[in-house]
Amino acid sequence: MRYLPHALLLFAGLAAAQTGAGTFTGPVAGYVFDRGAHALRPIVGIPGSASVGSPMDAGYTFNAAYVAPRQDSFAGVSTDGATHLFSITAAGLKENAVDGLMASATRVTFSPNGTSAALYANGQAQIITGLPGAPAIVASVSLGEINQRGARKLPPAMAVSDDGAYLLSTATGIVQLAGKDGVVRPVMKAGADAVLAFAPNSHDAAIAARGTGAVLIRDVAGTAAQQPLASDGPAFNATAGIAFSADASHVFLASASQQAVISFDLSGNQSSIACNCAPAELTSMGSSFRLTELSSDPLWLLDAGAAGPRVVFVPALRATQAAQ
Prior knowledge:
The structure is a single chain. By secondary structure, the protein is mainly beta. It contains one helix and 32 strands. The longest helix is centred in the C-terminal third of the chain and has 4 residues. The radius of gyration is 19 Å and the shape is globular.
């Protein structure tokens, strides 16, 4: 294990960005991967009033990086294909060595509270528990056939429970469940491009797909009782992600086809929150969810904090920032 300096100090549940001279520039709402810089950047400020900060030096050049929902750990795939796990602490970035960690992961999914994660590559998945500070591999699972769109093979959508006991994933036309014993069994049929999520500290799950609509599954590994949340409709023509609110009272669906986030309560009531974007993901980031990747366009977020769900943006990188 080693500690690497970076430009962030945690403060009161948020982070505060530092410059090289040690002056604070404000709280940090989360992190986003910059493909051009091959590094993570902090989102400095609070949702609705934030900017993208300078690249963080983790000691590696990354092809991909994935940050846990509580912003206390991340997984990075370096340019040599190795996968690295880090804790984000007040002292800096602490790399946590894990023997046998999957190389060249093409998807990394964290559990709702970030205590577990699932890595995927070439039809195989690893389940990691003990995050952020003491990660360990607890299961390796063969997921079999993966989705295809045209001639391009896609990594499956995945969701892992906070206790690391179960992994949901998509195969062609079905949602399947795997346990630590490696046994994989079907849960339900689902339409194309299904998206999946576990509820925090629970084995309840939500699934949405074109042709399926949105479904809540209670105790997916046990009774697996299905409760429809919404019937199929235009919002499901292109789903980008699904997630539970922190208190598990609502389910959020990012819809690229509707350019909106749909909020369902568990009684099936719903509302739509418009976005001046086509959401590409729904990635938990503290009290917010990131809807798009870092690019020359603004970065869009769903702010799910106490003020109520709203869509806000972070201004795009200036040319001088992108060149850093």
